[in-house]
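[Discussion] Sanity-checking designs against the backbone

I'm trying to build intuition for which residues belong where. Below is a structure token string of 254 positions. I'd appreciate it if someone posts a full sequence so I can compare it with mine line by line.
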């Protein structure tokens, strides 16, 4: 996984529903020069992993390689997936190494999630001083696969009619033929519980070189999901012309 300047892993969240946490547990001598001092069989060796609410436990997956234990690792999770206990061996033999993956669900991650921390604690009934918990940390970067498409209706428009000055225009039928731009923004990834803020910037031929209107923004209509706030700035129809739906063709405006 990519890492930041401080060495912390960076988790780029886009459309994946799960993330794999690789676990590597060893029962090796602490000093290879004196292998007989410690590293004996570890009886009732257990791993207890505690997960944040945003990243609950989902499943166990074996490591892509030959298992180093006679029996496969067995993990039991609590009801909400906030903690799991994995049996590493009884005993976990001297010199043994265990690798496996804990699969975690990303469905609880929101746009406000900035970091994640998983606590890993080993235990055994054998004498084993200094078994301190290890915390696996990652920063979260949300990468929403947004896409935008647009179409003009009608696709071709001809200018014509009596040219009017801006001060003489009072209603929409006096600003010329209407053209409707339909813009669709979609999220191809998974739906986050909270959407945060997304912005779309639209550029159009607003005026010609002498400052005269070219395309006048007459009306903006936003279709959003229930509960979503959608607002545009600046507002359409800056001259506050009288709108008479449906839009009518008319004269041009200089």
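Best answer:
Here's mine. Compare freely.
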């Amino acid at each position: 996984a990519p890492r930041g300047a401080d060495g912390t892993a960076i988790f780029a969240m886009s459309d994946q529903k799960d993330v794999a946490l690789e676990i590597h547990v060893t029962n090796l001598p602490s000093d290879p020069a004196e292998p007989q001092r410690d590293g004996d069989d570890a009886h009732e060796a257990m791993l207890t992993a505690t997960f944040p609410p945003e990243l609950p436990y989902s499943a166990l997956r074996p490591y892509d390689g030959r298992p180093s234990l006679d029996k496969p690792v067995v993990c039991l999770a609590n009801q909400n997936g906030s903690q799991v206990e994995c049996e590493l061996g009884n005993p976990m033999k001297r010199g043994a190494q265990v690798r496996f993956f804990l699969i975690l669900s990303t469905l609880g991650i929101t746009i406000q999630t900035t970091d994640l921390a998983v606590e890993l604690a080993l235990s055994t009934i054998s004498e084993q001083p200094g078994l301190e918990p290890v915390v696996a940390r990652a920063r979260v970067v949300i990468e929403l696969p947004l896409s935008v498409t647009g179409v003009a209706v009608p696709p071709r428009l001809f200018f014509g009619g009596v040219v009017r000055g801006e001060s003489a225009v009072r209603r929409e039928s006096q600003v010329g033929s209407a053209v409707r731009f339909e813009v669709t923004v979609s999220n191809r990834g998974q739906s986050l519980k909270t959407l945060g803020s997304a912005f779309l910037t639209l550029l159009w031929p607003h005026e010609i070189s002498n400052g005269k209107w070219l395309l006048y923004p007459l009306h903006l209509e936003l279709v959003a999901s229930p509960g979503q706030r959608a607002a545009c700035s600046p507002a359409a129809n800056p001259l506050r012309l009288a709108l008479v739906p449906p839009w009518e063709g008319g004269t041009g405006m200089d």
